[in-house]
Amino acid sequence: MQNSVFFKSVINSDSILDSIGLLGQYLETLIGCQHICLLLPHDNGRNKLIPYSFKINQTDLKLLQQMAIDTDLFSDMSSGMHLCITMSSAKPAIKLLSMTTFQSLYTFHLNRSVYGAILLCFRSPVQLTDEQLHICQMVTMQMEQLIEKIYFRKQVLKQQSYENLVNTLRMKDGFTLNHCYNVAFYASLLGAKVGVDAEQLEQLKISALLHDIGKIAIPDSILLKPDRLTDEEFSVIKQHPAIGYELLKDLPDVQKILPVVRWHHERIDGSGYPDGLSGDDIPLLVRIVSLADAFDAMTSTRVYRHSLPVFEVRRQLEINVGKQFDGLLVQAFLQMLDDHMIMDRLVWDE
């Protein structure tokens, strides 16, 4: 199993606690770490921490929280720092560690829009190799992405204008809604990568989330069909961008997101739908969402087909440059995947 499978499992999760379980299984296999603690600051400040853990008892969990608060873990300890009770040090962190059932600990910071730390705990003295530290840094970034996505969902649902539409889509087809959240997340990563400013980035997230909203008007017999669509059925599905545009166009403050909703299936070569736009006539944010949409579709499993292997997804993006996708965006997207080590070669025994 490639680490991209772990990444996809994390991104598809709706729960930090569930993802800590996935993380624990992953790291237990790869580096022998059986005990994990994620600490996130409470809304009221860093002196109160919200803990999530994997195979850690309550006594140890409270001591780890206390260690983080007393030693100001988030600023005094560098990411990847190693603590071990065999170290000759009077540091408060070493003393607190010695009170737990653990003998060795590594800390990894969450440094993006979320703040917090992952603590990897061992019952015996451990010295991780460079390759193992690399794995830890990778999964730390992927946990950051999960937490960002969950925070993003909460933020969107506070916006009353869209809440009813999102809830309607949730009731009709949970798979499509989760796909929309994933597309919004991938699009925001790509938008940031290519320099989209903060205001447009928020616009990008919302428009990507609502890009498939027109599917709420597609008959269930087609939308939820557990098999490949016929040509006639696909022609019905192809109406969803125009339907979504009609659903949203009269709502307040939606003018800037309508292009994504209507045009996310347009193609660079002009063969897309519904309006046959091509090249630079397709706005940048639309091109970003189109790429994120295709990536999530290719890496998702449906009843009638498996997800594509990572190397094939990459190949499909590359061969469709100038046809379906903007070449500069594909280049940036693939670099972004490499930056986040989604496609790095870490293979488990199958």
Could you outline the blueprint of secondary structure elements for this entry?
Layout: H1 3-12, H2 16-30, E1 35-42, E2 45-54, H3 58-70, H4 73-76, E3 81-84, H5 92-98, E4 104-110, E5 116-122, H6 130-157, H7 160-172, H8 174-193, H9 198-209, H10 220-223, H11 231-237, H12 240-248, H13 258-263, H14 284-298, H15 310-319, H16 327-339
Antiparallel strand pairs: 1-2, 1-5, 3-4, 4-5
Helix pairs in contact: 1-6, 2-6, 3-5, 7-8, 8-9, 8-14
Description:
The protein has a five-stranded antiparallel β-sheet, with helices on both faces. With 350 residues, the chain is α+β, with helices and mostly antiparallel strands. 53% of the residues lie in helices and 10% in strands. It folds into two domains: 3-146, 2-Layer Sandwich (Beta-Lactamase), CATH 3.30.450.40; 159-339, Hypothetical protein af1432 (Orthogonal Bundle), CATH 1.10.3210. The chain has helices at residues 3-12, 16-30, 58-70, 73-76, 92-98, 130-157, 160-172, 174-193, 198-209, 220-223, 231-237, 240-248, 258-263, 284-298, 310-319, 327-339, and strands spanning 35-42, 45-54, 81-84, 104-110, 116-122. It contains 16 helices and five strands. Mean pLDDT is 84; it is low at 341-350. Residues 176-298 form the HD domain. Residues 154-349 form the HD-GYP domain.
